[in-house]
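Changelog-adjacent note: as of this version, every example in the card shows the full chain rather than a window. The one below runs 115 residues end to end.
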Amino acid sequence: MKIVDIFVLAGTGYVSGLSIASGFLFQAIRKFNQHAWSKGKEALWAAAAITNIVLGTLMPVLFIGIVVVGDQPDRADFWPRAAIFAAGAIAGAALVFFGISQVSKGVRAIVGRGA
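Full-length structure tokens:
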């Protein structure tokens, strides 16, 4: 495996981890702003959340198919490639969860303990 392959696998895994975990950030944004939103803003948020759900679930599957498996479904180096992709996905998701914990601390400080 070339170094470029490793960067592509880790990078697509990282982006996948970000997209998978970003739904939790959408929920934190909604919780922070729910008292000030109108019906129109709530509908826009729902449309954005649905788009995020669709892309956040489909893109990692497509990335696995394109980057990890590629044009060789029975490749000998599948598991190392899958492990690099998974490590990138875990790193991306960990960043989002760390960011959400920081946002939640700020929301609790502003809104109060009910947040």
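Structural remarks: Helices lie at 3-33, 39-69, 78-111.
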